[in-house]
Design the sequence.
């Protein structure tokens, strides 16, 4: 597991005074500003975030060191990270998406199904995007107790009981 976790991404400029549109990946979007300074993926930029409002599908924010629309536009696509130790501990049955990506997935009989490439949420519940040898396309596995009875972060594996015909 990485010691840096992505909490959001800059979606572009908002207005002409250096504000940005900010996509938050936290459970409550406004919490992105509560973790202290966030850094770019390469660690070269560090930003204090002050939320200024909301727009369709994103927050609006002022970032330290960003004063113009051109500077804000130049940050489009920058992913914002925080050290893992800044994140709160989770109950046993909850997981950070970043910890699930890359885990090997096995069926209840021990046969390999693939590896988690991404965790998606399109409104109803989380889906694990599974890729692997022998799969002709991506498989989207519901991330529910019924379909995923075991997640073992220590062993870096998931045991799945997928619905009939999914794999």
Sequence:
């Amino acid at each position: 597991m990485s010691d840096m976790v992505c909490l959001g991404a800059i979606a572009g400029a908002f207005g002409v005074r250096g504000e940005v549109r900010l996509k938050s990946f936290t459970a409550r979007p406004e919490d992105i500003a509560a973790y202290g300074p966030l850094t770019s993926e390469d660690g070269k930029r560090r930003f204090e975030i002050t939320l200024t409002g909301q727009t369709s599908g994103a927050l609006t924010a002022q970032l330290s060191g960003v004063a113009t629309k051109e500077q804000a536009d130049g940050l489009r696509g920058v992913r914002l990270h925080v050290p893992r130790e800044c994140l709160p501990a989770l109950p046993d049955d909850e997981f950070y998406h970043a910890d699930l990506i890359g885990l090997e997935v096995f069926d209840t009989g021990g046969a390999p199904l693939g590896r988690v490439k991404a965790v998606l949420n399109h409104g109803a519940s989380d889906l694990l995007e599974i890729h692997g040898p022998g799969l002709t396309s991506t498989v989207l596995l519901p991330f529910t107790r019924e379909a995923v009875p075991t997640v073992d972060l220590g062993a870096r594996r998931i045991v799945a009981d997928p619905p009939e015909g999914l794999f």
